[in-house]
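Support request from a user on the community tier.

User writes: "When I paste my structure tokens into the form, the page sometimes reloads and wipes my input. The last time it worked, I copied everything first. Here is what I submitted, just in case something in the input itself triggers the reload:"
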């Protein structure tokens, strides 16, 4: 048994398909299948049910998969510890971003990160909070830029920036000529929101509920841009994070107004696993991201 065999086993458990698992491991399907069978022979126990068209693990197989995930995570930590005590800004770095941050933050930071840390090899991933947290826990990514919410409370969070949310209304809306609107003005109104699973939805709803507003149950978007386009078409109003709004505060049929009393906002942090030896690396990265955002929003 070796580390590569464990990687094959975990990939098969994740993809539930021999070809897809082999592609993820950059080997041929016969190679992966043969190594799994050799692993079974060396352990003397079947890991898979061979009489099914689907990939089905035996009880012993599932237990081994769980242990293999733990072993691979520990191997990753060992490699991190060997990386100049975590201070080196070189080599691969896998970073996750939530969908309401990635499209607006990445264009601001990637060039600057590459400029300051030319030996750092970035791998970028976009997924919802629960998926990124799981990937962090499993060691699939090194850190993630996410909003600070209950799901992330067990991680180490380095605050990157504080982001207000602005009210977005159509051109023809009675408020379009205003510069700001108190949140209590939303009392009795319904707002367009993202679908369940987006942390921005829960955060925005918290402020809306406090003001006496609700979400429009007839519409659930899968992206912030879909919500924005619905507003532009005159189908409602919404809250948009500041980094996602144009400097002109008016564009493509949408006006952006400051929401006040209170100002709806969220904390964006760079999160990593507790005990990671790469803390110094993450702190340097967070500092660069924070500077880029502050320069943009100031």
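"...and here is what came back when it finally went through:"
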């Amino acid at each position: 048994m070796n580390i590569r065999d464990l990687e094959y086993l975990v990939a098969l458990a994740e993809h539930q398909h021999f070809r897809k698992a082999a592609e993820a491991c950059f080997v041929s399907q016969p190679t992966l299948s043969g190594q799994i069978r050799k692993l079974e022979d060396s352990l003397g126990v079947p890991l898979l049910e061979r009489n099914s068209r689907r990939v089905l693990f035996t009880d012993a197989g599932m237990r081994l998969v769980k242990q293999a995930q733990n072993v691979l995570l520990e191997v990753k930590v060992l490699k991190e510890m060997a990386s100049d005590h975590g201070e080196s800004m070189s080599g691969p770095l896998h970073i996750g971003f939530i969908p309401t941050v990635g499209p607006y933050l990445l264009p601001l930071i990637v060039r600057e990160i590459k400029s300051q840390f030319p030996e750092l090899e970035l791998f970028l991933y976009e997924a919802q909070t629960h998926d990124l947290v799981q990937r962090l826990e499993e060691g699939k990514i090194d850190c993630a830029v996410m909003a600070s919410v209950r799901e992330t409370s067990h991680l180490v969070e380095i605050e990157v920036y504080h982001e207000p949310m602005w009210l977005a209304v159509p051109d023809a809306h009675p408020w379009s000529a205003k510069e700001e609107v108190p949140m209590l003005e939303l009392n009795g109104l319904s707002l367009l929101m993202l679908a369940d699973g987006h942390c921005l939805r829960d955060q925005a709803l918290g402020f809306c509920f406090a003001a006496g507003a609700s979400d429009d149950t007839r519409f659930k978007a899968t992206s912030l841009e879909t919500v924005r386009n619905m507003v532009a078409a005159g189908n409602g109003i919404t809250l948009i994070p500041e980094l996602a709004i144009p400097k002109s505060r008016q564009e493509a049929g949408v006006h952006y107004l400051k929401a006040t009393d209170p100002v709806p906002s969220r904390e964006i942090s760079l999160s990593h696993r507790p005990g990671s030896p790469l803390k110094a690396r993450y702190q340097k990265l967070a500092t660069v991201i924070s500077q880029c955002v502050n320069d943009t929003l100031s």
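Agent notes: The reload is a front-end session timeout and is unrelated to the input. The radius of gyration is 23 Å. The longest strand covers residues 156-170. Escalated to web team.
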